């Protein structure tokens, strides 16, 4: 599988360029030819690689998870069916339906919202923007706002316009009305350089998102038959740590379960041990990313440069 990953991943995607809102290049970092520390890979391709021949039941919505039943943990599905399991792992994202079985805590708004769009076949249709983005990412930081574009495979580029706003700041913005979204964007990023604005304006579909996080030190009293990992356990700003932690945690839990003896209580001990290892590591990364977001979308754009410089040292 490692060989397949290496074929699909893009070490050159580690490149990073930072601009001023007027288009001035402030940083232009490119990895060494043999740099393999943080290769990029499209999530869809990685998912397909990891799932391989496994049969996955997509689109089956969970309404409720109820631990402590005579047959194990009961899962109630939106289609009206119920099933009981020895262990339910809540890896169902920010608004996890499984989380309520172990914790009353819900995500809180960070004060930062974003609008996501994308450019397709950028090298052919938008060669000027392709050069601006380069092989990896380009980020532009202003006062309480930023534009970030990241190259994926196949000439696809994801673009994010981030800004500080009230939690209801995107209410009433019809994401299906592209012209209205572009007009809203222009009011927020007035005066920015034309090529930077074009990264967003040439998008075809727009998705607004309000960024939420869980408390940095989120833990819970252990519950028999249920646990959490990934965003369900420790939702944090999208700065590259959350997805990696979810992958690591899933692998650690799976390996521990596979190695556990088939004796009463062994599975529960594995889960307890997993949780106590996960929590302190997640707390460190949650603190790092929440602090990072506050500096990357801040009144002082120089803080964003300081974050980048610290990471590269």
TrEMBL record:
Residues 85-260 form the FAD-binding domain. SUPFAM superfamilies: FAD/NAD(P)-binding domain (SSF51905). It holds the Pfam family FAD_binding_3. Residues 1-40 are annotated as: Disordered. GO terms for molecular function: FAD binding; monooxygenase activity. InterPro entries: FAD-bd (IPR002938), FAD/NAD-bd_sf (IPR036188). Keywords: FAD, Flavoprotein, Monooxygenase, Oxidoreductase. This is Monooxygenase. It comes from Streptomyces finlayi.
């Amino acid at each position: 599988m490692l060989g397949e990953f290496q074929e699909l991943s893009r070490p050159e995607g580690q490149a990073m360029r930072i601009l001023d809102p007027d288009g001035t290049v402030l940083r232009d970092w490119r990895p060494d030819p043999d740099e393999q520390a943080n290769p990029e890979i499209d999530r869809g391709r990685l998912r397909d690689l990891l799932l391989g021949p496994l049969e996955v039941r997509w689109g089956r919505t969970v309404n409720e998870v109820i631990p402590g039943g005579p047959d194990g943990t009961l899962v109630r599905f939106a289609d009206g069916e119920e099933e009981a399991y020895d262990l339910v792992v809540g890896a169902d994202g920010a608004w996890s339906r499984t989380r309520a079985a172990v914790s009353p805590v819900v995500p809180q708004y960070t004060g930062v919202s974003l609008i996501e769009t994308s450019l397709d076949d950028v090298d052919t249709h938008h060669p000027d923007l392709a050069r601006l983005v380069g092989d990896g990412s380009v980020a532009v930081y202003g006062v309480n706002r930023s534009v970030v574009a990241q190259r994926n495979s196949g000439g696809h580029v994801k673009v994010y316009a981030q800004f500080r706003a009230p939690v209801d700041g995107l209410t009433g913005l019809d994401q299906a009305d592209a012209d209205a979204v572009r007009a809203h964007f222009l009011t927020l990023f007035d005066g920015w350089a034309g090529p930077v604005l074009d990264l967003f304006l040439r998008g075809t579909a727009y998705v607004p998102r309000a960024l939420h996080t869980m408390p940095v030190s989120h833990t819970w009293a252990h519950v028999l038959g249920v646990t959490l990992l990934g965003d369900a356990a420790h939702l944090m700003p999208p700065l590259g740590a959350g997805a990696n932690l979810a992958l690591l945690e899933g692998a650690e839990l799976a390996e521990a379960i596979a190695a556990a003896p088939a004796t009463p209580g062994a599975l529960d001990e594995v889960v307890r041990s997993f949780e106590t290892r996960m929590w302190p590591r997640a707390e460190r990364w949650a603190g790092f990313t929440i602090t990072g977001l506050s500096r990357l979308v801040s009144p002082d754009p120089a803080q964003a440069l300081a974050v980048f410089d610290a990471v590269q040292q």
